[in-house]
Specification:
By secondary structure, the chain is α+β, with helices and mostly antiparallel strands. It has a domain of about 140 residues: Jelly Rolls. It is elongated, with a radius of gyration of 35 Å.
């Protein structure tokens, strides 16, 4: 096989590996059914490899039993949703009802819900794919001295995660690609050596037979 053919095989193998990795993406839905007996104001919530915390200094979450609540007063907002291992994920959608809310990713993507929102399912744009975290804010309606706070409830957060390849799989993939590259290199060297060794037909000076040489007298 020519060098070009082997390079095509290498590229195809790499693309195949990328396709397998993409196909292995896992959909994870946070249902908040594991709140259990954490009390009404837990410091954090962990489910299916995700953790949710309050970024307010000394803040806490609001246990809704089988959902997560947030209010606009001091003590909670914003909440942060991220993976425990620090990896990226796709923030696809969720169920929500309540007051004004804003969702902001680490990449700057934003999604706003206006107040007095009845229970509905929201789908996020592709701008919320491959994010490191998402912060959920609720704005205070007016002066803090007023008792008119907003509440929001979120449930069934749908995400996609792409798990990192296991060490053994990564090692085997690396060895396979290295072998293909080595074979391509050897094929190139073999082709170069063959082309440089051209057949050379030795030339000789023609011999004149029966020639007469006249010597001067």
């Amino acid at each position: 096989m020519t060098q070009h053919g082997w390079m095509k095989h290498c590229i195809a193998a790499a693309c195949c590996a990328c396709g397998i990795a993409g196909a292995a993406a896992e959909t994870v839905t946070l249902t908040f059914d594991q709140f259990g007996d954490d009390g009404p104001y837990p410091d954090s919530y962990t489910e299916s490899g995700f953790v949710i915390t309050s970024l307010y200094p000394g803040g806490h979450l609001h246990n809704g039993g089988s959902s997560l609540w947030l209010h606009s007063r001091e003590g909670s907002s914003p909440y942060q949703i991220r993976r425990v291992d620090g990896g990226t994920f796709d923030f696809l959608g969720f169920d929500y009802d309540g007051g004004d809310s804003v969702f902001v990713s680490d990449a700057g993507a934003t999604f706003t819900i206006l107040g007095d929102q009845p229970l509905a399912t929201f789908t996020l744009s592709p701008a919320f794919q491959h994010v490191g975290y998402v912060n959920w804010y609720m704005n205070n309606p007016g002066d803090l001295s007023t008792p008119d706070e907003q509440w929001g409830q979120i449930d069934n957060i749908v995400t996609n995660i792409s798990p990192a390849p296991e060490p053994a799989q990564a090692a085997m993939l690396g060895l396979g690609l290295a072998g293909l590259l080595l074979r391509a290199r050897r094929a190139r060297q073999s082709t170069f050596g063959t082309s440089s060794r051209r057949s050379v037909t030795p030339t000789s000076t023609p011999i004149c037979e029966n020639s007469v040489v006249a010597w001067p007298r």
